[in-house]
């Protein structure tokens, strides 16, 4: 069974696939990120659907890499009879989704096999399949898939199999195309033309970002490309990760569906993209946000689907055994109905940042910000589920209150500095009131640390964000005390847990790994506290946890030394980008200050 870190990502800005080091596509949802998977071997066995394309002798590849700053993947096997390369990519979507795999003979002659096992509806539906001269058609219910290749394939053991030899200089294309079964078949694409266009698209996109020269250029670029790949182009939404139910502990039940757009995750992603100068993505995301949250501010959800749908009912897929038997496999996410007060702060912080970065605030955008703020004024004293989405009792999370302070701070400053209309003085007074409340109840003077919730002793890594949002300076003794407390009480092998699951009553059984984003937040906090050497050492260690193609999932198991949780995860990658930019520039980054400033023609 492949490990989480054995997977590379390819995608077309509507969905994404995971390709293993053995050359197997084990995860692909069509036509969108949150559609049912037609390859779900990731969460079961190959019988749940996969597409293996590799030398007949099989095994892990000798090397693989993305082609420079693109999402075009090259996987190479050196065998006794010769060397072969498989180029995998998804062309940027025009109408139909395609997966293209080109087998390239590098030297000698290699016996190859393509084994395509389509299983629609997350591994449950075996399609009806017809083989013609140079194409295979598979149909079941709403789904139709066509495979085109000059290599002839045939049905074998409920799969479509093609055996062929690739000689040095050969290029053998396979193009898999999805469509709705009741529609006309999409026009065929040319694999080589698509390769050139896809390479150009990603190279151009990468080139548009701010100059990231320096020692961290490669990790910054790869993380930005990954964040872009998690973006749903038609609406501007950004999914939290490409997968569902990769476990936070092997064999555990903390398995969630991340193929949705969390306001928290996407606002942080937006901050990373803005820091790198990607204004178009920031504008598209803002439009998605304004459409999704439009209406009564009291009905604001913490997450939406990629098209803004609100109802995301959580269900279990009992026919899938789960990744290494970690069950259940879930779709939908019950957290969508939770109260998480930090989301107001993150949303208003990011819209403020967009304004500071030069994106013009339209009247509609400002009206929604005012409505959100007015709603928060009546809500901030309520207990909530917090940013970690605990399923235990609601409580007064310190981080949630700090983020309510952020909301009041950014809104009062927007009125004062940008002459936008609103009760600026009232919001200033509220800001001061929240601050006093946090300092009185969220800070433990005996141990000189902020605490997870009011009047408790429990630690929480989200408190590392306090200097970043500007609540207190990075060198404040209370911030330094919190850093020290987290280093002493909330780390495993120097990496940071969100909280101690044994102490925090999150309403869930079992434990989890260290949370990679929180470990990057420790980098930021150390850097802001003047501990630059420690920050750099930790950051460079975190870089070593990336897989061979630069991807990070949500968590890390410090004992088994392997990645855990959904992958690739936006939370981990935007945290990496933010830390890298700070270390690169040598100055601490606050969430209300863009690293790059551009003028905008208005929206
Ligand atoms: O651990 C419990 C919760 O885990 C998920 O939430 C986490 O992922 C979210 C998406 O990246 C992130 O926004 C949140 O801060 C994380 O705690 C899961 O989605 C929840 O349903 C679950 O309760």
Automatic annotation (TrEMBL):
Molecular function via GO: alpha,alpha-trehalase activity
Involved pathway(s): Glycan degradation; trehalose degradation; D-glucose from alpha,alpha-trehalose: step 1/1
E.C. number: 3.2.1.28
Name of this chain's protein: Trehalase
Enzymatic reactions: alpha,alpha-trehalose + H2O = alpha-D-glucose + beta-D-glucose
EC class: hydrolase
Species of provenance: Demequina lutea
Keyword annotations from UniProtKB, A to Z: Carbohydrate metabolism, Glycosidase, Hydrolase
Domain called GH15-like: residue spans: 215-579
Family annotation (SUPFAM superfamilies): Six-hairpin glycosidases
Biological processes annotated in GO: trehalose catabolic process
Family affiliation: Belongs to the glycosyl hydrolase 15 family.
Residue ranges constituting the Trehalase-like N-terminal domain according to the UniProt record: 3-161
Origin: domain of life: Bacteria
Cofactor: phosphate
UniProt cross-references to InterPro entries, sorted A to Z: 6-hairpin_glycosidase_sf, 6hp_glycosidase-like_sf, GH15-like, Trehalase-like_N
Lineage of producing organism: Bacteria, Bacillati, Actinomycetota, Actinomycetes, Micrococcales
């Amino acid at each position: 069974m492949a490990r989480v870190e054995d997977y590379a990502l390819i995608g077309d800005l509507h969905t994404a696939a995971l390709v293993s080091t053995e050359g197997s596509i084990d995860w692909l949802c069509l036509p969108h990120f949150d559609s049912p998977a037609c390859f779900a071997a990731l969460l079961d066995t190959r019988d749940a659907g996969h597409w293996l394309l590799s030398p007949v002798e099989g095994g892990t590849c000798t090397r693989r890499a993305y082609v420079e700053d693109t999402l075009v993947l090259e996987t190479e096997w050196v065998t006794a009879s010769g060397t072969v390369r498989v180029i995998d990519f998804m062309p940027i979507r025009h109408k139909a989704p395609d997966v293209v795999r080109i087998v390239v003979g590098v030297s000698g002659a290699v016996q190859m096999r393509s084994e395509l096992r389509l299983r629609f509806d997350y591994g449950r539906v075996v399609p009806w399949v017809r083989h013609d001269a140079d194409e295979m058609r598979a149909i079941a219910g709403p789904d139709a898939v066509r495979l085109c290749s000059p290599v002839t394939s045939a049905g074998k053991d409920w799969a479509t199999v093609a055996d062929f030899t690739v000689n040095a200089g050969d290029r053998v294309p396979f193009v898999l195309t999805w469509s709705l079964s009741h529609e006309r078949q999409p026009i065929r694409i040319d694999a080589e033309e698509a390769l050139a266009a896809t390479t150009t698209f990603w190279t151009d996109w990468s080139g548009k970002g701010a100059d990231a020269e320096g020692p961290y250029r490669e990790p910054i670029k790869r993380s930005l490309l990954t964040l872009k790949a998690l973006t749903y182009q038609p609406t501007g939404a950004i999914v939290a990760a490409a997968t569902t139910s990769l476990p936070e502990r092997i064999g555990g039940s903390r398995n969630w569906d991340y193929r949705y757009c969390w306001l928290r995750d996407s606002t942080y992603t937006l901050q990373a993209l803005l820091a790198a100068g990607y204004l178009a993505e920031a504008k598209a995301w803002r439009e998605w946000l304004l459409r999704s949250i439009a209406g009564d501010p009291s009905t604001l959800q913490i997450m939406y689907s990629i098209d803004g749908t609100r109802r995301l009912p959580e269900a279990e897929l009992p026919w899938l055994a789960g990744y290494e038997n970690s069950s259940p496999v879930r779709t939908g996410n019950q957290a969508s109905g939770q109260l998480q007060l930090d989301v107001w702060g993150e949303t208003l912080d990011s819209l403020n940042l967009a304004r500071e970065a030069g994106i013009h605030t339209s009247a509609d955008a400002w009206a929604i910000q005012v409505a959100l703020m007015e709603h928060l004024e009546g809500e901030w004293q309520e207990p909530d589920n917090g940013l970690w989405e605990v399923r235990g009792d609601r409580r007064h999370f310190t981080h949630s209150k700090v983020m309510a302070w952020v909301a009041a701070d950014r809104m009062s400053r927007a009125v004062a500095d940008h002459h936008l209309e609103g009760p600026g003085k009232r919001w200033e007074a509220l800001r001061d009131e929240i601050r006093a409340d946090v300092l009185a109840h969220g800070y433990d003077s005996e141990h000189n640390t902020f605490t997870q919730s009011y009047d408790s002793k429990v630690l929480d890594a989200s408190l590392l964000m306090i200097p970043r949002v500007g609540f207190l300076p990075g060198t404040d003794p209370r911030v330094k005390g919190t850093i020290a407390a987290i280093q002493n009480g909330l780390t495993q092998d120097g990496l940071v847990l969100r909280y101690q699951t044994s102490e925090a009553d999150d309403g869930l059984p079992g434990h989890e790994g260290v949370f990679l984003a929180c470990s990057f937040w420790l980098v930021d906090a150390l850097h802001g506290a003047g501990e630059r050497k420690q920050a750099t050492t930790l950051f460079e260690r975190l870089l070593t946890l990336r897989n061979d193609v630069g991807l990070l999932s949500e968590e890390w198991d410090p004992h088994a030394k392997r990645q855990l949780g959904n992958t690739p995860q936006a939370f981990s990658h935007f945290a990496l980008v933010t830390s890298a930019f700070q270390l690169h520039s040598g100055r601490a980054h606050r969430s209300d200050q863009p690293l790059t400033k551009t003028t905008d023609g208005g929206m």
